[in-house]
Amino acid sequence: MRNITTGLWVLMLSFGALSASAKDYRVDDFGAVPDGVTLNTRIIQYAVDKIHEEGGGRLIFPLGRYVSGTIHLRSNVTLHLEDGAILLGSTNPYDYDRMPGFNTAFLLAKDQENIGITGLGTINCRGREVAYNLVEQIHKGLVKDDLRLDRPVEGARPMIIYFRSCRNVKIEGVQLTNSGSWVQTYDQCIGLTINHIRVESNAYWNNDGLDVVDCENVTVTNSFFNAADDAICLKSHDPNAMCQNVLIRNNVARSGANGIKFGTASRGRFKNIRILNNKVYDTYRSAITLASVDGGQIEDVLIDTLRVINTGNVIYLRVGERWNSGKTPWLKNVTIQNVYAEVPATKPDKGYDYEGPIEDLPRNISPASIIGQPDLPIENITLRNIEIVYPGGGNSYYAKVGLTPAELDSIPEMRKSYPEFSQFKELPAWGFYLRHARNITFDNVTMTALQPDYRPGIVTDDVQGLKLINTRLIEPDADQKEQLFFYKTDHVTIQ
Predict the structure, then answer these.
(1) Which CATH number fits domain 1-229: 3.10.110.10, 3.40.630.30, 2.160.20.10, 3.40.50.410?
(2) CA dist., res. 13 & res. 20, Å (int)
(3) What per-residue confidence (pLDDT) applies to 21?
(4) What DSSP assignment string belongs to 64-82?
(5) Residues 341-356, mean pLDDT to the nearest whole number
(6) Quick check: pTM over 0.70?
């Protein structure tokens, strides 16, 4: 925690020194028209450039609706949106810049420092409209795109924010809505503070609420994320880089995919990550996913105090080899503790604009899982003070994997597949399934099935070193049922 705290203090001091000498400028003094119609791109960009040249300051947006295309932030400039100020993204896809080798975005920055977006206003990219207009241009043959799954490529649709290789970034107070692609991506940035923001983005596909890519000294606190895709996501695009010294605390997340996720892009390392006192609800996939499938190396992760209501899965830890490029992935030294979670029998994101697909059927409700590979086991995982309530009701006549060696061996490894908790279809446990793992500890873990289930509560396969301390499996009418099944498993301690 010392590295995170030190980084945060350095960032606060840096912004404190900047604000002490910075000057405020009003965007309407530069001629911006807040009528919701006039395109203000050139005026806003001129103002940003001028403030940068003058040594820095805040560009103030008073009450009004300011339409713009891409704005490039410059060092020592903060956009400050007052209460009632709305920055509206243009609905014309040609109003957005795409830097060579970069994604397009409403707000772009590369190699800048001491930049920020603050205030109580809103940035609305109008992503659905601009995406539909881009599709129309593709259908006319004016823009070349493969329209994979009838969607334009993600990088051609504007995010709200894309900052690359920046230092001392502050995003505070604002609301980010309706992105055309991922809402906000911070790539190889050092010193990132996100605090008290609100993300509402179910506008289109690939609407990740937050992507932190290969960044150092990051805090994400006191914020709300409602996203069509992963809500809070840590990624690594560079095999030689890493996400490190990251604190995610006091946030609420809702997602049409995963709540808090490492990956899927996972080429480098993830180290010294603290995820504390968060809530996840109405989330289609997993509340917590740690996936190392591209040669990535995940270690030293603490997840503490998590409340999960209405999610398709609670915990999914996975190692695979999708795009390894010769690197050896690993996932080890993770503690998950003080968790309460409820898994429904019905689709948890039903009724949202962009729901997760109905897929991987037939299968009964999936258990939480820790699944490595035969030569790449997941190691040193501690689950402490965990309570998960499942619907139960697993029906062997609908889908079944039994406990014979042939049935357990038939579960595919799926070494190169995209990682999702449901990828294996039916799994043989209703509570927790462990495969290819070493040194796993369950300490004060309670799992409850509300209806009888044909499967045992915990099934292990190729697990070496398992401690079950005060572990309880509760299921109706199952007094005589054996809830633990160990296959190819050694060194088991039950206390």
Answers:
(1) 2.160.20.10
(2) 10
(3) 52
(4) EEEEES-EE--TTEEEEE-
(5) 94
(6) yes
